[in-house]
Design a protein that fits this description.
Blueprint: E1 2-7, E2 10-15, E3 25-32, E4 39-44, E5 61-66, E6 71-73, E7 75-78, E8 81-83, E9 94-101, E10 104-111, E11 120-125, E12 134-141, E13 149-156, E14 159-168, E15 176-180, E16 206-214, H1 216-231, E17 251-265
Parallel strand pairs: 3-17
Antiparallel strand pairs: 1-2, 3-4, 4-8, 5-6, 5-9, 7-8, 9-10, 11-12, 12-15, 13-14, 13-16, 16-17
């Protein structure tokens, strides 16, 4: 299936392999600390071998609440696309999204983490050799206390690199982090095993990097997305679906997260 991840004010396409299974509800929901309301996309999965046309789920009842007493029913702006109006993303708050459709209910809870400042982005020669081109390096200071998780997206000259770059603080708790985005020996921070020629950074390129602070459940979801893409980059059937944070058997995710963006011209 094709997954849409909201990024830098637009929709980001992720090609997500799913195992062959009966049609199921797919929920893609984001709430960002950018003073914009929640955005939710509902569709039905199809077998991987079928055409990539995912029927929208219309007429669902979608509610969003927080632990400060807020509650709203999202409106269906277009078939399968639901939007909030009043609740906004506030760091530290816990949000619950409930989707009711065809007699079933699906619930996910996501905490919008306290913002970790995005301090710097620059490029360095790749740790994997000159053929890999330049590699993006990000800097931030991880707060003390385990459980901080991060998702990065990278754009070269406005073109999205489809890799989902993930980091957490398992080995960097409370430390200043200076980390290259890309493949690692254990596959911990990258997505696909190799960048395409269009993704390789060179002097003179415009580089945009987005840093999201995500909660551990969302980190786990995208970690399994990466693992499936690494293990089965061209397979028509995968052994499992990504670990969703929704109850009730739905596919997909609900992410309440912060977002910060830095842009540079590569010297």
């Amino acid at each position: 299936m094709t997954l849409l991840l909201t990024a830098t004010g637009c929709e980001t396409v992720i090609d997500l392999p799913l195992k062959t299974s009966p049609a199921n509800v797919v929920i893609e929901a984001n709430l960002v600390d950018d003073n914009r309301p929640a955005q939710v996309r509902l569709s039905m999965s199809v077998a991987y071998q079928q055409t990539n046309v995912y029927p929208p789920v219309t007429g669902a009842v979608v509610t969003l609440s927080d632990n400060a007493g807020g509650l709203e029913v999202l409106r269906e702006a277009s078939p399968g696309q639901y939007a909030g109006t009043t609740l906004k993303g506030v760091p530290g708050r816990v949000y619950t999204l409930r989707v009711e459709t065809s007699g079933a209910a699906y619930v996910a809870v996501s905490t919008l983490p306290v913002v970790v400042p995005f301090e710097e982005v620059h490029t360095e020669p790749s740790a994997f050799g000159a053929d890999e081109g330049l590699q993006t390096t990000v800097q931030y200071t991880d707060p003390a206390g385990l459980g901080n998780s991060y998702l990065f997206r990278q754009y070269r000259n406005g073109r999205l690199n489809k890799t989902i770059f993930l980091q957490n603080d398992k080995y960097t708790d409370g430390k200043h982090v200076n980390q290259q985005l890309g493949r690692s020996p254990n596959g911990a921070v990258g997505g696909p095993p190799e960048a395409t020629a269009d993704d390789k950074l060179m002097a003179g390129d415009s580089l945009t990097v987005e840093m999201q602070n995500i909660d551990p459940g969302v980190y786990q979801y995208f970690l399994t997305v990466n693992q499936l893409m690494q293990q089965n980059p061209t397979a028509s059937v995968t052994p499992a679906n990504p670990t969703s944070n929704f109850s009730g058997g739905a596919l997909g995710y609900f992410s309440a997260h912060s977002r910060r963006v830095l842009r540079i011209k590569i010297p």
